[in-house]
Design brief:
With about 210 residues, this protein is an alpha+beta fold. The chain has one domain: PK beta-barrel domain-like (M1 Pyruvate Kinase, Domain 3, Beta Barrel). About 25% of the residues lie in helices and about 25% in strands. It contains six helices and twelve strands. The chain has helices at about 65-75, 120-125, 130-140, 170-180, 185-195, 200-214; strands at about 1-10, 10-15, 20-25, 30, 35, 60-65, 90, 105, 110-115, 145-150, 150-155, 160-165. Strand 6 (about 60-65), helix 1 (about 65-75) and strand 7 form a beta-alpha-beta unit. Helix 5 (about 185-195) packs antiparallel against helix 6. The longest helix has 14 residues, at about 200-214.
């Protein structure tokens, strides 16, 4: 498991459906080592802090393995790393094997996995495709957010070392399935809400699903 690319970006305006919207989804690879802070990477910002950023979404990771599929689906063979707004393009970490609550060391930083990425309309604006949000979520290729347990520095080529596995074993893929699934899985929902690293907003959503169903 390793870091393939480190990507950062600042907010910019982009035209979408007749309006100008401000977004920081445009990230570009950077050379050298980049400091990882408690809220983001140096040189990186979020445009709308009400839904992006914060301690539980300080770092966004996206598997490099997905790029081949997206390049084929979107007919864009030159799709660059950082295209999905990720800070870390990673190798060897897939949603079906990464647990919420897993702790990892990346470079000199220590991080903990918190949640999948739920796309907003700015992903559609980035790709100029109205179907992109639905397509992204349906694919299950969501990537995942991490919180910073210890600040440090990261660079392309750094190893990603698993420090501890969350014992409940709820994967990023399962969290996404529980969110989008039409038929609630009560046992899985109950297991998910017990994961300490799961953000309060996700826990509240799952509790509501259980309440309506159970």
């Amino acid at each position: 498991m390793s870091v393939v690319s480190v990507n950062v970006g600042l907010p910019r305006e982009v035209a979408w459906q007749g309006k100008m919207v401000t977004t920081a989804i445009f990230k570009e690879p950077v050379d050298g080592r980049v400091a990882v802070r408690s809220l983001n990477l140096d040189g990186d910002r979020q445009a709308d802090l009400s839904v992006h950023g914060g301690r539980e979404k300080a770092v966004y990771a996206y598997p490099v393995e997905h790029y081949r599929q997206w390049r084929a689906e979107l007919a864009d063979g030159a799709l660059p790393y950082g295209a999905f707004g990720e800070n870390l393009t990673t190798g060897g970490l897939r949603e079906g094997a990464v647990h919420v609550g897993d702790r990892v060391r990346v470079g000199s930083a220590e991080l903990v996995v918190t949640q999948p990425r739920l796309p907003c309309y700015k992903l559609a604006a980035r790709f100029q495709r109205a179907d992109m949000v639905k397509r992204f979520l349906a694919s299950g290729r969501t990537g995942f957010y991490l919180a910073v347990l210890r600040e440090g520095a990261v660079g392309a080529g750094d190893a990603i070392e698993l420090l501890a596995r969350d014992e409940l074993g709820v994967t990023i893929a399962e969290i996404t399935r529980l969110y989008v699934g039409k038929d609630p899985d009560d046992a899985a929902l109950r297991r998910a809400i017990r994961v300490p690293a799961l953000p309060a907003s996700w826990r509240a959503h799952f509790l509501e699903r259980l309440g309506h169903h159970g």
